[in-house]
Amino acid sequence: MSAAWKPGPLGNRDIFAAYICDDAALDVLRPVVSEMGWQSEKCNKGGLRNAVQSLAISASPAILMVDLSESGDPLNDINALAEVCEPGTVVIAIGQVNDVRLYRDLLSSGIHDYLLKPLSPNQLRDCLTQAQAVFSNPRGADGGEDREHIATAVVGTRGGVGASTLATSLAWLCSTEHNRSTALLDLDVHFGTDALCLDLEPGRGLTDAIENPSRIDGLFIERAAIRANENLAIMSAEAPINSPLMTDGTAFLQLQEEFRSAFDMTIVDLPRNILINFPHLLAEVHVVVLVCELTLASARDTIRILSWLKSNAPNAHPLVVCNKVQPGVAEISRADFEASIERKINYAIPFDQKAAVNAAKLGQTFAEANTNAKATAPICEIARLIAGISEDDGAALANSSKGGSSLLGKLDLKALLGGSKAKAKATAAQ
Q1: pLDDT at position 365 over 90
Q2: Is the pTM of this model over 0.70?
Q3: What is the number of domains present in the chain?
């Protein structure tokens, strides 16, 4: 028998509530709920629609179980539930449709688990125990010490240079190839494409965070972030274009702080306007990947942003990445570009339209869809660099960037990249 759970502060929220369609399932659920030390009276007759109606006028519980058996469109109805559900609520769905795709879609939408009818006591007991553990010990909250965390911002000097394409690929590579738990934060609230690149619905997580910064905590991150894979979570938005961004940046800072506790790495896809309006977002960022192209306008804005970073984010190291490089057809040469910005381009990514189309068709990041493409190799090197540094290295990166010197000429790349001396020299010569 499980001991009665002693929760933290919940305000006026109940610990548990359920909305179940049939008496048979209720008869199995109620004894298990009593064993957990919760009120069996919170097991209500009625499915998901009843839950939505009830939670529209009352606070949602910490753990919510909803029955989808009478739902004609479970995913759409779950989204309706999210509109009235308190951020941080652990939601368990039950139903009678045995479909792997539905199961995955429900988990992607933020559901904790999906149980098939007929229910069994052991199945319910295990699921509720896991849900209780998630609520009482949110991810990242169990460590007594601050975990080491590396934050990277990806900034495009111009629209269309491929900053989002690079950000999603870096996040995917860090989470898969380097096995780092990674958060991807897309701060283009109205027109962000990071979720689209990962073939995911953006959800309401970022919008809810902006509207209610005080709700942001470990539980909120568990509930609101959309999982792309086991190690990668994304928070983004697709806000209505008739709703201007109304925030003082507090939500963004709090999200960064929670990510610091819950993940090994954060990749922030940072639009230029957000960078300028909220410079404090770079206070804890170690590396700024500045994505440019070989055009006059991009050279001008690379100079301006590098100067701005030097004054406003001295602890963040800029890494200049030139994207969509086409030898012989560039508006200005690489040599002229480097002369104008007074520093070397750290990485050059060749233009590959076919590979970009392939990624879009597959609904995958550029790096995932084109593992053998020539353009993927420098992206993998950048991911290896940022995944291999520590917080101390991050401080060294910032120091090495002062005076406009090239990062790769001053670092011990063998230690940083884990490669041979020859490979380190080849990388430094790029």
Answers
A1: yes
A2: no
A3: 2
